[in-house]
């Protein structure tokens, strides 16, 4: 391991970062520095919309610190010059760069968020992802590893189906390797690592031929609806070797490991069957998948999408797209979750991000360009709330549709530079 990586891992253990980061959110890579405080910005990776503004995908920076004059306002906008189904993204291991990608174009954009956190600038564009990876299409999850970025794919260039792989790049943007999903579980979606257990979990969705179709047409196509994944794969992380394939019917999407050191379990939800599942480590070291609870009324297909676990492993936020609702489960007893809050946020809902201190929660709306609702139901916003463990209280809203900024998707927290004499606050 080279010296910069060792330094960053030591800083992560101490709760400090080389860039002076003071805020964090849950559900990030364990290789990121983890510190607490009030975030100053939220970066929103946003899909361009034909007829709205410049029509391009863009990174939008919103002020989130109530002590600053830019609170609740658009601070900066960086358009990437094209529209390619902007979707997910994540920081590299020192949080100086934010990697984001397009599901349709398979383009990857690397933003410098350290030089001026209020105005991210494009540092690198990777336009050969499909060619370099050997045919992986649709970069989805961007997950920091020491000195590298792990990127899951959703599809392939051969038949635009669900068979796909996991791709690694160096922090400098050089292709490293591709690991294809096992034959018995060829679909991909999310990936999350438990460092202490040397285990990685991956989930499964569908291929480009499906996710780029209009949702009403897809849902009525019986043949196409059979082309969704139903598995969670347990990997030996260091060896990148699949160890188990767990049956989780209905397209398990986001995976969230419990965050406390002795909690050896994770959660996921199934988009098509609207169920909450737990992935639990057994006494012999293997894992089992357990169906825990319904999410809303499964017969109406509320389509659960993003989930977020609190840093103390007590609460799990579950967003569902079709009914625009977030549900909060008390998962302090992980095998017996209890629904403690059900709140409609908008006509449609996708991503949720919560602060490490558990006091603030943010929501965005867009799922996919051809899946979002139309007309008056096509909400496109960022909404911020405070959370006291019992209720969500609104604080501000940014209407992306009214501002013609596009369809807001993934969020990541950022911070203004530390002033002279200030010290980052460790958890």
Concise synopsis of the structure shown:
The protein is mainly beta and 427 residues long. It contains five helices and 28 strands. The chain has helices at 3-14, 129-133, 208-211, 215-219, 222-225; strands at 41-47, 58-63, 74-79, 86-91, 97-102, 108-112, 121-126, 136-145, 148-156, 165-170, 175-180, 191-194, 199-202, 231-236, 241-247, 252-257, 265-270, 275-281, 287-294, 304-309, 315-320, 325-330, 338-344, 352-354, 360-364, 381-387, 392-399, 407-414.
Question: What's the layout of helices and strands?
Answer:
Blueprint: H1 3-14, E1 41-47, E2 58-63, E3 74-79, E4 86-91, E5 97-102, E6 108-112, E7 121-126, H2 129-133, E8 136-145, E9 148-156, E10 165-170, E11 175-180, E12 191-194, E13 199-202, H3 208-211, H4 215-219, H5 222-225, E14 231-236, E15 241-247, E16 252-257, E17 265-270, E18 275-281, E19 287-294, E20 304-309, E21 315-320, E22 325-330, E23 338-344, E24 352-354, E25 360-364, E26 381-387, E27 392-399, E28 407-414
Antiparallel strand pairs: 1-2, 1-28, 2-3, 4-5, 5-6, 6-7, 8-9, 9-10, 10-11, 12-13, 13-14, 14-15, 16-17, 17-18, 18-19, 20-21, 21-22, 22-23, 24-25, 25-26, 26-27
């Amino acid at each position: 391991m080279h010296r910069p990586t060792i330094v960053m891992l030591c800083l992560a253990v101490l709760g400090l970062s080389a860039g002076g980061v003071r805020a964090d959110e849950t559900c990030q890579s364990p290789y990121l520095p983890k510190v607490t405080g009030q975030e100053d910005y939220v970066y929103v990776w946003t899909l361009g919309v034909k007829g709205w503004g410049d029509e391009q995908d863009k990174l939008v920076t919103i002020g989130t610190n109530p002590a600053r004059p830019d609170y609740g306002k658009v601070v900066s906008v960086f358009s990437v010059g094209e529209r390619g189904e902007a979707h997910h993204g994540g920081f590299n291991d020192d949080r100086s760069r934010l990697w984001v990608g397009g599901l349709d174009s398979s383009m990857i954009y690397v933003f410098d968020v350290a030089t001026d956190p209020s105005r991210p600038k494009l540092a690198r564009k990777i336009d050969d992802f499909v060619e370099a990876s050997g045919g992986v299409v649709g970069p989805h999850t961007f997950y920091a590893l020491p000195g590298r970025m792990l990127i899951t794919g959703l599809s392939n260039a051969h038949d635009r189906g669900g068979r796909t792989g996991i791709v690694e790049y160096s922090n400098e943007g050089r292709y490293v390797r591709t690991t294809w999903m096992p034959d018995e579980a060829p679909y991909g979606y999310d990936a999350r690592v438990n460092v202490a257990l040397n285990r990685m979990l991956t989930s499964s969705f569908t291929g480009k031929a499906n996710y780029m179709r209009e949702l009403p047409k897809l849902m009525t196509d019986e043949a196409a609806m059979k082309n969704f994944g139903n598995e969670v794969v347990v990997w030996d992380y260091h060896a990148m070797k699949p160890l188990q394939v767990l049956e989780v019917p209905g397209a398990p999407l986001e995976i969230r490991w419990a965050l406390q050191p002795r909690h050896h379990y994770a959660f996921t939800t199934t988009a098509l069957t609207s169920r909450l599942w737990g992935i639990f480590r057994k006494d012999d070291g293997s894992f089992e998948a357990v169906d825990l609870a319904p999410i809303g009324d499964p017969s109406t297909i509320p389509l659960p999408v993003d989930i977020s676990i609190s840093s103390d492993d007590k609460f799990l936020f579950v967003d569902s797209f079709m009914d625009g609702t977030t549900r909060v489960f008390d998962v302090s007893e992980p095998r017996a979750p209890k629904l403690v809050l059900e709140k409609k946020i908008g006509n449609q809902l996708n991503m949720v991000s919560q602060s490490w201190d558990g006091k603030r929660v943010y929501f965005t709306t867009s799922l996919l360009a051809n899946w979002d609702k139309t007309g008056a139901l096509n909400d496109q916003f960022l909404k911020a709330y405070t959370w006291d463990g019992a209720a969500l209280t609104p604080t501000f809203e940014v209407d992306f549709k009214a501002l013609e900024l596009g369809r807001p998707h993934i969020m990541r927290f950022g911070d203004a530079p530390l002033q002279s004499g200030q010290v980052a606050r460790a958890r």
